Fold each of these.
Amino acid sequence: MAKMKKHTDDDSREISEFFRELPDNERMEMLGIWNKSGMLHREATANEITDEETEDALSALHNKLNFDSQQNEEPTTSAGSSSKIAGRLTYFLAAAAVALIAFGAWLYTPVTITVPAGQTLAMELRDGSMLTANSGTTFEYSRLFGITNRNISIDGEAFFEVRSSDVPFIANANGSVTEVLGTSFNIRSWSTDPDRETRLNVASGRVKFYPQSFPESAVELTEGHSSRISDVIKKPADPVRAPLSYAIAWRDNNLAFSVQPLSVIFDELERKYDVTIEWSEPEIAQTTLSTFYTQPDNVESVLADICTVKGLTFSQTSTGYRISRK
Amino acid sequence: MDQLKDERAVELFGLIAVSDRKAFDEFFRKSYATLVVFGCRYVKDKQTASDIVQEAFIKLWNNRSSLKDVELPKSYLYRTVRNLSLNYIRDNANTQPGLELISDQAVAAGEEQLSWADPTEQSDDDDTQKRLSLVKLWISQLPERQREAFELSRFEGLDHHEIADVMNVSARTVNNHIVEALKNIQKIREMDEKKNVIAGHG
């Protein structure tokens, strides 16, 4: 928080300059408006919505979220819910069987997490491995993850730092399988990609990589190497040395593309900035581009650059942008 | 209603991320009124704004597992309410009233020469109300983006970093919007004063 306040002081410089440049009496008037506008609004807000209205809205919200009926709840972590079940077992023997069946069924429903567009997610898995997922990524794992297995499915892009263990850590992504014991690697595998390509970059350790349907074709990758599988190439490509910095640029909020069609780049921008991007002719999306952006401020500056390079122009729509030829 | 402090907002987000319903309720109670008033400025209707704020909290709860990395919890909700409101306006474009009602009080206040540089702060309630409606009138005349940035800064008390997050623009753009808004308010005031002078002599 302290960091953010500092940021504000720097940012407000222009506003203080505006006030400083005004003639004395005008400055007092404008500062008065500036200060009072904040104060007056807070009083008005308190008068417009009563506590009673807030409570009514909260109970309406509880109904919508089914907070009052426990069994409808889908917990994200197992801890809270299993202790609830334990409590019921003590008090209602008859309910025990039902609870056990429910618990069994619940155990076999996988946990699914989707990262909202415009955000990234870092989380620790139960086995101690770390996962960082890019915007729009969906992953799924069994509730027994870290107990009987270490299997995880992913559609999207994620960086894994796998804790060493005798149980293999297996990441499934659009028909590809990445199998490791303890290492770190980046998987990029969007089901929306034209060729459903899965690209694997290894940051440390040794990784086995193969298509689900053809495990015999497995290749082994070591630090600094990359391979890929797609609908077009069914066997994993021979591992090549590839700079890791490009593959994991997204983790530092950078954008990096090496000879990618604009459709892939637009997809990424849509997820990263939570906007829709459409284009007037299909040919536009097929042209390719290589680019690296360091922490772009907003989607418009990126689009402006792409359009300049490719002789395109963009306009704003109600939900995002439309790209057309100049 | 007490305002939600930044530190508390971060704490609550951490608790909501691990499915703490009490934290969820506290966050709702502390931010509902401000968010509804904020939403009203887009959709112009309290009931619609209330529905939108509830929907924003449903999204918050459903996405709770990813809240741990949200750096700016307050702007997260403002952003959701803003996006939902803009969607609502888009989908209900033909049912939107074209005219905004300007209160009589604001019009009357515009005809008086109220001083804002009032260091004694001894204005009575009536004067305060007049000022409130007048400043609202001025702000309502600003271009859309400038109005949003100005209101988020002055009304909602967000810092520029947070406003940038809500409006999906850079902090620099936020600055520019606010400075332009101030310049425009200054112009509108000058025009009002001239009108008053003409009216006074005529």
Amino acid sequence: MYALIVFLPLVGSILAGLLSLNNQDRPAELVTVTGLLLSLLLSVIAFAEVAIGGTPVTVDIGRWIVSGDFAAQWALRFDTMTAVMLIVVTGVSSMVHIYSVGYMSHDNARARFMSYLSLFTFAMLMLVTADNLVQLFFGWEGVGVASYLLIGFWYKKESAHTAAMKAFVVNRVGDFGFALGILAVYVLFDSVQFDVIFAQSSLIATTNIEFLGQSLPALEVAGILLFIGAMGKSAQLGLHTWLPDAMEGPTPVSALIHAATMVTAGVFMVCRLSPMLEYAPFALDVITIVGAMTAIFAATVGLTQFDIKRVIAYSTCSQLGYMFFAAGVSAYPAAMFHLTTHAFFKALLFLGAGSVIHALSDEQDLRNMGGIWRKIPVTYAMMWIGSLALAGFPFFAGYYSKDMILEAAYAAHSGVGNFAFVMGCLAAFLTAFYSWRLLILAFHGKPRASADVMAHVHESPLVMTFPLLVLAIGAIFSGWLGYELFVGHHWQQFWGDSIFILPTNAALENAHHVPTWVKLLPIGLAASGVAIAVLCYAVFTGLSAKIAALFWPIHLFFFNKWYFDELYDAIFVKPAVRLGHFFWLRGDRDTIDGFGPDGVSALVYRISGACSRIQTGFVFHYAFAMLIGVVVLVSWYVLRFKG
Amino acid sequence: MAFELADILPALPEIILSAVALVLVLVAAYGGDGAANARRVAHLTLAGIVLAAIALLSMTSAQSTAFGGMFRADAFADYMKLLVLMGSFAAVFMSVTPLERDDINKPEFSLLVILALVGMMLMISANDLMSLYMAVELQSLPLYVVAAMRTNSLRSSEAGLKYFLLGALSSGMLLYGASLVYGFAGTTSFAGIAAAVSETDLPAGFIIGMVFMITGIAFKVSAAPFHMWTPDVYEGSPSPVTALFAIAPKVAAIALMLRLTYGAFGSIALEWSQVIMALSVASIVVGALGAIMQKDIKRMMAYSSIAHMGYALAGLAAGTHEGAFGVMIYMTSYVFMGAGTFAIILLMRRDGQSATRIADLRGLSKTQPLFALGLMVMMFSMAGIPPLAGFFGKWYVFLAAVNAGLVPLAVIGVVMSVVGAFYYLRIIKIMYFEDSEAPLDQDVPLANKLVLGVSMAVILLFFAGLNSIMDAANTATMALMAPF
Amino acid sequence: MIEALFFYLFAGVMLASSVMVVVSRNPVYSVLFLILAFFNAAGLFVLIGAEFLAMLLVVVYVGAVAVLFLFVVMMLDINFAEMRAGFQKYLPLGLIVGGILVFELVVAMYGDAFGGKTAPVVSEIANTTRLGGVLYTKYAFLFQLAGLILLVAMIGAISLTLRKRAGVRRQIIAEQNARRPADVLEVIKVPSGKAPAAANTGKAEE
């Protein structure tokens, strides 16, 4: 039964793919949505049995790779962490599937789209149920491919397919680290099986490996390599550049892949490997710092963007940073908790943004919106709920999880912990600010869209608003419901063996006993952020432009995303292109083709011409050739015998 | 000294063919003029060939000799003779109508072919230097004549004359070599020669005689550098004659080469394998490279056959059981590839005139898709693409060469077969991807269709029957290498 | 001793005349030198006791082949000067190739010529009788083969040269023999005093 959770989307995807050959969109939608809903139902049952009931299960499917000592199985591992992820993935995915039916109704390749969505879901489920690193890698690459296909879904659009390529290439960098990490793990543990790795981590902790003459602690190296993989997939600072561009894909894709599920794979992986990473304190510190930096970086960029989806994308990036630094201070349950709540409210925000875009005839620029809140009240309400949850207002989902993270960072009582706490608080302020900036610019003020567009503004159909409602319920209640289970005093009972924290790393436990100001600070910051946003954009509408003009260098710096793209372009892309150009012209065309295929064929032609020229047609030439042949052969023997 | 029946019975197929030939002389002379008589003689020739084949198959394939040891019948002879008979049958069968259309409908054509066929079969069964020489001459003379058959064409006469002159030269070399061999061995019989020499007791003169003999036969095989007549003769002769040249005499000459080397010189394989290797390398290279620039398909086929003979000789150069076995597999595929290819070349006519430029094949896939398919199969097979017949031939030949330590030879062979693939594939490209200016004539005689169909079936299904073919070739090789 | 003397005489003259066949300017001389070479070869055959072959050589090669050559050379209009130019052009290369070959053959076979194997013993019986004895028995196979080859030569020669031309009158003996006077003869009365020309023309026009 558990296996069905994973394979129903695959079946749906294949069927929809076949149906897409005949452009049978409606059956394809039915098949995939049904598959996902069934999968969701089963996931809920699995959650009840595995997480609440506390009975982890492993389902063996078959042998995959056996080579010498190396063995990798197809096996589905269902423990609490997987169960949580199952709920998140199938829940959001099924809502996105339903939403897509409405959102994509004007597209003429809907069957293909649904097929890709289900394929992605399958790969993601494969990832979260992985029993070993290689299978995890399989799912990891699977979601990468599906993401590529979906970002580039409108492949005729130049920007879409470049974005797809960028996402793929940047992810390859991370995947390379991940693959190296898997190799390192295999070298250290002689296995890629999670159970084996976790059981032996404490023993391996002291082992060193030699690399380039340096003696490095083995587990730290493996941990950092694996984290590089996570950075790529979860768009952490340095490897984040693909995520904003990925917004070129259809909005449901952004909601599913680039907010709720795929980008959280890195967080999931780090939490999954907690029994190993706990023995790699340096790697954890790295994770904390990178996470904290990402949180503040993305928030600053989010302040200045005008594309509604990009703002949310940077917000996602920022929230992922929170999750990482939570994991970095050993508060894995808090990371998972935020992952879950974030999935709901961020998917809600994205789908809401999609609804806005849909209403405004595919307009994405905030500067061309405004004044539509009365026309699309449901969407407006949903965006409010999402923003409140994101900003962490009390009793919304984000409040519980984000505050927990900040408290844990504070309670870590370490240098990196404090750094993360400060950055997190700043980012929380900025988050509130840009969320309300978005709300105000999108819905309030005078309409800035053309009259033609305004005339068509309409509330989305039920098939789109229904998923919004479901996700809104999640965004409101998931924090309140999950708090005690996920990060309460008895978190260990809930998570079972799936999360392991060394007794010395007590950040999570201490988080419940932090000073009151620490608990109140984020709320205060969020409130002030909202207040300033209202002042800047609703009350004194010219203020924001003045501030931007006053601090123009900083604004420019943020607006251009800290010049990451330009930097990478100069350091990596241009030299690589130039190198490739060199190899193509001088290496391939001139050297290999010149001496290889082209040179050889030219030589063959020349010899062939010579052969034809020898053939003069004169009998005595032929006779001479025969005689010379005989003489040569005879000479050979004479020299052999008498020489 | 009188001949017992048992003393001439092993030569029954040849006797039947000779008798048919003699009867046909009368039919040709008194049957009247014109196409009807030529057709009658051709049909009788075909009947004679079938009769000979039946005789051949019905006889025991145990080793036996006739005519005082000058003639040897064994499983090897049966195998090769069957190939020659099939090849000649195909050549005559599909020549009838084209010859009529070319207005060369002389009954002498079939008559000379059947006499040449007797010569070829006697070559295969040669067991004595004298019978070897006589058989070679009996095979060659009719072929010189048929090459010049189209008396009103200068090219045909030129082809015949060239072939004759160079053939005479090669006969001279063969004869000179034979006299040396006889001088040093003191006997003309293969058995005696084999017994007279060994690796340790080997006069240099004997070796020189052997080299001369091999080069004499190499001319018949058209191995480089004794190949130069081939392109001119193939191109100049009427197409039906070229078809005959390309199929049957090559098999007989290779068989004779096997007889001579494995039989008479069997005890000094180390020596002749070097000559054969040199011939093989030269033929493979010349055949592959020479064909590329050709514009006439008959000329291209000439180079192609030079290369094929080079590959066959590569197996021979191994000098082992495996090598002879590979040669036999190779020749089997060669006969069918040749028959199939020429079935199509013979139908290459436009406005009643033979049109044999390669460019004339343009767009064949649209005007005559079945023939284009057939020619494609033939070309793929010649290029050695699995699982077609040509692949197995090359495979076993190279395998033998490698196992005998002739790795460089095999490497050259493989490299050159890549070059060869170029011009075979070019034909396919021309047929399938280029548009024709004017389609070829659509009126195709049934005989060509039949020959093409059978050849295609054999080449496509070669792998299915591979086991039985291999069994037969194996038995034949054993018979070839059996002591006298 | 005397045998050796004759051997060297015949052999020497034969070689010299062979060279002359190739180098002499007038083709008629060439053919005559060829005849001389044949005669000397026949002499060599006589020396080893093969008198039948010697006679055969004289009868066939001198009597038939060489005479035929003479006819051909005299009847065909061949530009010998042109041929000679080509000949001189290739003479050096030909000499080198030929020289190497001769040198090699000499080197290879010097000393152990024919490995001490003796020539077949010449029997008491005259070799014409001897040949007659084996030609139709032991070598019947080769004899028959030779017959076939000659048949091929005949057919080939006829088929290559026989052309049916329109307007050529042939002699058909059977037809000639079958003719009766009544079919071809007509007796015409010629009245005296009148010219027969009219009747003749009338006949021709029939």
